[in-house]
């Protein structure tokens, strides 16, 4: 009888061990850092176009996707709650520092960041350059607010958690997971103002795909990133000003000079074609380069490289060609490059390597 009771309690213990302890212990620990955006947006009705970004807090966001708890042990932190059109250096520095703290902890296996789609490519690329970890760091977003008919946020969030929880995601640089696609932070760009399928990686292609949490990886990151990056935020309290100016027909140099007068340490031209601009604009650009402002030629064209010395003599004028980076990513890279004094050759090397 006594032996039967012992066997009974042993059975209860084993049952509890296998049904509760082991699965929970095996789930990776993922921290969700919420910054705002449409994924946390709300509208008064489910079919109206107008809405406000950054209305839903991180706890509500987690509660809205209970399925994600089967993929990972999740906990959330609110970094900011803004539309990403308002993204700023203060949030960037706070976010990057928090990611570096968290990923250094042995009980954190990965990070998911919820963000607006407008500037996710800039934040993602910034983090790709300053996060010092191989652990998965995955940004996600939504095109439709949480209250919309067919909101895309919940599945995007679920897929982002699945990717962050996947060991194969490690060492691929900072990733962006939206609409079943896994993009590298250095490659993606927003390509539609309203479509759910807004993100493309036109030059470098996808890192992988993820469907209902099942991820497939095709390649590693392109360009130096994370552990391999020479950039660090140690001791950094502010980032230098770099402006982007779009080239156009009949452009003069006044706006370039105005950027310099406003205190820009660097100027990126979203040039026509292969980083071109009118003669007047080029004269002003080269004059600012001579004064020590770092002048980068990128392109307003959606895809393609900007090469050195093609139609513009960069060597003679002291200009930098952006290689594969679009204007907004060129600006991010240049801001970090300008944290220390560098030669033009070194800055051009950075544009080739990142
Ligand atoms: N304006 C919004 C944002 O970037 C758009 C979005 O998230 O889709 O926060």
Structural features, described:
Helices cover 32% and strands 19% of the residues. The chain has 354 residues and is α/β, with parallel strands linked by helices. It has an eight-stranded mixed β-sheet. β3, α4 (120-130) and β4 (137-140) form a beta-alpha-beta unit. α4 packs parallel to α9. The chain is globular and about 60 Å long. Aspartic acid binds next to loops.
Overall pLDDT score? 94
What fraction, in percent, of the residue positions are helical?
Answer: 25-40%
Q: β content, as a range?
A: 15-25%
Quaternary structure: single chain
Low-confidence stretches: 17-22
Bound molecules: aspartic acid
Structural class: alpha/beta
Strand order, largest beta sheet: 2-1-3-4-5-6-9-10
Q: What would the principal axes of the Cα set say about the shape?
A: globular
Concise summary:
This protein has 354 residues and is α/β, with parallel strands linked by helices.
Please render the helix and strand layout as text:
Elements: H1 2-26, E1 29-36, H2 58-63, E2 73-82, H3 89-103, E3 110-114, H4 120-130, E4 137-140, H5 153-164, E5 175-178, E6 181-184, E7 189-190, E8 199-200, E9 208-211, E10 214-217, E11 242-246, H6 254-261, E12 266-271, H7 279-290, E13 294-299, H8 314-317, E14 320-321, H9 327-337, H10 344-353
Helix pairs in contact: 4-9, 6-7
Bound molecules: aspartic acid (ASP).
Aspartic acid binds near residues 37 and 85.
